[in-house]
Specification:
mainly alpha; Four Helix Bundle (Hemerythrin (Met), subunit A); two-stranded antiparallel sheet; 6 helices
Length: 190
C-alpha cells in the first residue's frame, strides 16, 4: 500500500485503540454521563463520529469507485486540494491554551447525537464504519483518488477530494476522541 495511505490506515487503527482505552474502564452510567451540562458524554462523542462517518461514506464510496473505473494509476504523492486541506486543519484536535481547549464549533443539528446511546451498539457501529474506511483505503491504493471529489454533507456547495476526505474523517475522529478522553477522566474520577 502507498505509504501515505498506510499512514492514514494507521491513524484509523490508532483511533480505534484510543477509543478502546477510553471506554475500557467506564460503566454504562459513566459512558453516558456528561462531564458538565455543556459538554458531550463519551457516548455522544462516539455517536457523533458514527453520524459523521455515515454521512460521508456514500460520497467517499462513489469517489473511490470513480477512481477505480478511471483505470488510471495513482500519483507518486497524494495531495489534498485547498478546500480539503483547510477542512482537515479545522476539524482536527483543538489546540490548548493554558490548559483549556480553544476553537469550539457548533454542530449542525443532523449531527448532534441523541442521549441514552447504548455502549455495545454504538461501539459496534463505530468498528463497522472503521472497517469500511480501511477497506476503502485498500481499494484506493494505486488509484487517482485526489482527482475525484466528495460533496460535504455539512456545508452545502463545498467539495474536497477523496484523499482529503479520508484525512478529514480521521482528524475529526481524533478531535472527538480527545473530548471523550477528557469526559472519561471527569466522569470516571481519574
Amino acid at each position: 500500500m502507498h505509504h501515505q495511505l498506510c499512514a492514514l490506515a494507521e491513524e484509523y487503527r490508532r483511533a480505534g485503540e484510543r477509543l478502546d482505552a477510553v471506554v475500557g474502564s467506564l460503566s454504562e452510567k459513566q459512558w453516558g454521563a456528561r462531564p458538565v451540562p455543556s459538554a458531550w458524554s463519551v457516548a455522544e462523542n462516539v455517536g457523533h463520529l458514527n453520524l459523521t462517518s455515515e454521512a460521508m461514506l456514500p460520497g467517499l464510496r462513489g469517489a473511490v469507485a470513480q477512481a477505480i473505473a478511471s483505470g488510471e494509476s495513482g500519483p507518486g504523492r497524494y495531495r489534498c486540494d485547498p478546500v480539503g486541506w483547510m477542512f482537515a486543519g479545522l476539524v482536527g484536535p483543538l489546540p490548548r491554551i493554558r490548559g483549556r481547549r480553544r476553537g469550539r464549533v457548533s454542530t449542525a443539528p443532523d449531527f448532534v447525537p441523541g442521549r441514552g446511546l447504548g455502549r455495545a451498539a454504538v461501539l459496534s457501529r463505530f468498528r463497522e464504519l472503521q472497517d469500511e474506511k480501511l477497506a476503502l483505503l485498500n481499494q484506493a491504493d494505486g488509484r487517482p483518488i485526489q482527482r475525484f471529489k466528495v460533496a460535504s454533507p455539512f456545508v452545502k456547495r463545498v467539495r474536497y477530494n477523496a484523499y482529503a476526505t479520508f484525512l478529514i474523517l480521521v482528524r475529526h475522529q481524533h478531535r472527538h476522541l480527545q473530548q471523550a478522553e477528557e469526559a472519561a477522566k471527569i466522569v470516571g474520577g481519574r
